[in-house]
Amino acid sequence: MTLPIRLPTRIFLLVISLVVISRSVTRGFSQMDAAADFTTRLDRHLERVTRRRGILGAPQVAVSAPRLGIDYRSGGRSQRFHVASIGKTFTATLVMQLVEAGAVTIETPVSALLPGDELDGLFDTTGSTDAAGGATVAHLLTHTAGVADYFDGSVTDGRPVRDLVITEPDRLWTPADLLEFSRTRQRPVGRPGERFAYSDTGYILLGRILERATGRVFHELLHERIFTPLGMRDSALLFHSVPANDREAAPAADAAAAALEGTPAPGAATAALAAETSTGTSLAIAPLRLGRTEASTFRSLSCDWAGGGIVSTPDDLVAFDAALHRGSLVSRESLAWLAEPRHRFHVGIRYGAGMMQVRFGGFSPFLRGLPRPIGHIGVLATHLFHDPVHDAGIVLNFASTREMSRSFRTLIAIEQELARAARA
C-alpha cells in the first residue's frame, strides 16, 4: 500500500494552531466537563472537515477513552465500511493465537506450512533448496519475506491490481488468483529478511497458512475467534460471509453463507465466488472512492482478503481495539511483539508485524510531545489506533484514497484534544 500523500508538508500548516490549542488548557474541569469539552471541540473540527470534503460528506469517527469519560461518535456509528488494510491486524492476531496454541512458531518456515505449488515463483530462492527461500512466518508478518505486492507493486506486464479494481469492476478475485498474479506478472523484491517491502501478497499467504493449520476457512476463523466472542455483530469478510445481525434477520442469507463452509483446500475459501454463490455482494457498505471513482458496489473489491477484506463499523472496531489491548485475544507479550516498531513505513510511521506506530514528531518537531498510537491504516484513509497514554481507541473512516492527509490531520486533532481532556 503506497500512501498517496505528503504528510509532513500538508500537516505542518496546522501544527502551530494545534500547539496553541494544547497550551491553552483550562484547568479545574470535572471529568464530565472535560468530556463535554472534548465533544464540542472535536465536533467543530469535524464540521470544518465535512464542509471541505464536499460530496464525500462527513467522515466516520469514533473515540473511546473510558478513563477520561469519553465515548465519542460522529458520522454514523453503525454504518458498515470497508476497513482496507486494518484487516492485517486481524490476520496478525489470528496468527499469534496459533503461535500461542503451539500450532506454529514465528520462525516456522513457510515451506513447512504450505505446499510448493502455492509458493512457486513468489520467493527469491537463489542459493536455497527451500521453496520459500527460507522465509518464515515472522518474515510474512513483518513484510520482509521479499514477496511482491499484488495490489500496488511493480508488474512485468499490464497493470497492478489497484488499477484493475477500477477498470474491471465486475471481476471476482480469489486468493489463488491473487497469488497467481504475483507469480506470473511480478518478481520477488528481495531475499527473505533482506529488506522491508510492504506486501499484500504476503498476507494472502498468511491467510492460507491459517486455513491449512486449522482446517477452517479464513472467514470462519474471523467469526469464531474474533467477531462472535467480541459481539462484533456487524462485521464480516466481504464476499465470503455476512454479519451476525444479517444472518438473524435473513435466514436465506444464512443458508447461503453455510454453503461457504467446509474443510479448505487451496483456493477453497473463495470457491463460491466463481459459482457466484457468495453472499458478500449483497452487503451494503458506506461509499468509498478510489481516486474519483465510487467503488463501494464493485465486485472487484474481492481483491482484498486476509490483507484487508473486512467490513465493520466504528462500534465493532472499538470493541476489537479494547479486547486486543486488554489481553483478551492474545497475550500482552504477543501484542508487544506485533506492535514493536521495526521498519520505516513512511515519514512518521514505523511498522511492526501487522501493526504500525505513528510518531508525530516525524511530521513536525512541534508534535513530539504527542503519544505514539499503535494500530493500522488502510488505503481508503481508514484508521484503527490505540493511544497507550490515554488508553483510547480511535477509529476513522475518510473513505477515499485522496483523503489520507486530511485523516491524519484529524488524528492529530484527536490526540491534542485527548491530551487537553487528560490535563483538565
From TrEMBL:
<dbReference type="InterPro" id="IPR050491">
    <property type="entry name" value="AmpC-like"/>
</dbReference>
<dbReference type="InterPro" id="IPR001466">
    <property type="entry name" value="Beta-lactam-related"/>
</dbReference>
<feature type="domain" description="Beta-lactamase-related">
    <location>
        <begin position="79"/>
        <end position="403"/>
    </location>
</feature>
<dbReference type="InterPro" id="IPR012338">
    <property type="entry name" value="Beta-lactam/transpept-like"/>
</dbReference>
<dbReference type="Pfam" id="PF00144">
    <property type="entry name" value="Beta-lactamase"/>
</dbReference>
<protein>
    <submittedName>
        <fullName>Beta-lactamase family protein</fullName>
    </submittedName>
</protein>
